[in-house]
Write a sequence for this structure.
């Protein structure tokens, strides 16, 4: 191989490796996952990932340099969002490979869910059938701003923190299916546990909007317009 050809390959793979370096930190993967739910300020990301604002800002700069996220001014704050929909698909594929190849993930998930008595979950196809046939009501227990950014069609927004005061909105005699940010999010688990204590038949959906889009399904937004 000529030196010029070798340099070309070296240069290309060096640039591609920027993506791998950007997601090499666990907190950056979590931040990216949160931004796939909807735009967020650095302050809110810091709160949700339980790190300092300074550390969250540093992680965001790494992601921005790799062009995985973008920012713009929103009032007094910088608002961060994923660069485009391909970033969501990339993150989902990356996570799927990890789920399939790293046995420790399955062990951690099984132990955690078993302790919570929550091994049973509803799959996407069964969910759609139950909701379509009016056998169940689907609730989105993520924060309202994430619901507005994009949610599974037919879902009712009842953030976890407001579930106690909004129980009257749930029809009696119907199963309740709760979902949140995906398989690693515990808000749906907490919602289901609370609903069961209050006498509802409730289950969690073992996927979030990231998984839903990766399946080729369409989300609804606050403007009631479907988007990929």
């Amino acid at each position: 191989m000529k030196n010029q050809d070798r340099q070309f390959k070296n240069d290309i793979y060096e640039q591609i490796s920027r993506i791998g370096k950007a997601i090499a930190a666990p907190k950056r993967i979590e931040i990216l996952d949160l931004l796939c739910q909807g735009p967020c300020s650095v302050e809110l990301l810091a709160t949700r990932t339980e790190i300092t604002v300074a550390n969250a800002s540093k992680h965001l700069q790494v992601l921005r340099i790799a062009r995985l996220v973008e920012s713009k001014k929103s009032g007094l704050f910088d608002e961060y969002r994923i660069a485009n929909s391909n970033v969501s698909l990339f993150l989902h594929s990356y996570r799927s490979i990890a789920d399939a190849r790293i046995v420790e993930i399955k062990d951690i998930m099984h132990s955690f869910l078993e302790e919570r008595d929550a091994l049973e979950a509803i799959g996407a196809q069964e969910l759609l059938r139950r909701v379509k046939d009016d056998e169940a009501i689907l609730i989105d227990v993520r924060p309202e701003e994430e619901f507005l950014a994009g949610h599974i069609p037919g879902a009712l927004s009842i953030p976890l923190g407001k579930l106690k005061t909004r129980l009257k909105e749930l029809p009696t005699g119907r199963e309740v299916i709760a979902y949140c940010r995906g398989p690693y999010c515990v808000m749906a688990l907490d919602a289901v546990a609370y609903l069961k204590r209050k006498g509802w038949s409730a289950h969690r959906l073992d996927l979030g909007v990231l998984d839903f889009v990766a399946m080729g399904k369409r989300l609804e937004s606050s403007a009631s317009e479907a988007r990929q």
